[in-house]
Task: structure prediction
Amino acid sequence: MPEVLIALGGNVGDVRDTLREALAMLDRGPGVKVIRRSPSYLTPAWGVKDQPPFINCCAVIETTLSPHDLLKRVQDVEGAFGRDRTNERRWGPRKLDIDIVAYDDLTVNDADLTLPHARLFERAFVLVPLADIAADRVIAGVSVKDALAKVDATGIERLPPR
Result:
């Protein structure tokens, strides 16, 4: 079964509950099994700075869904939490964002989906939690831990479990 890395985050509402519930929704649906989940991290806003900090985590899932079917599934989960991509500010506040970071070693580059994620190696807020659960995973020829060593993780704070 393909192994997929996903990143989740948000900065509106009780984000930690939202992340937990979103992963549970993914896991309950057919064709997706959550294998591991990172701790949550408080992270500075990225892209648009004039907003509250985000809470981010990553997960390893196994799936029988195709990459595009999985994309539809994660977007349906986002929608269940009120996300409306057509009416939101790019990189702005949101209750939930789920990105497919990598799907096995597959490369996809079309209008709907880019794998591995196009900005993965720029985003400490993804690489820090990802390193907790998949440090040795190689994506596009680079291990997660090596990619993390090349980005500035200033201001990222691991949150205590709750």
The mean pLDDT is 93. The helical segments are 15-28, 67-80, 124-134, 144-148. The chain has four helices and ten strands.
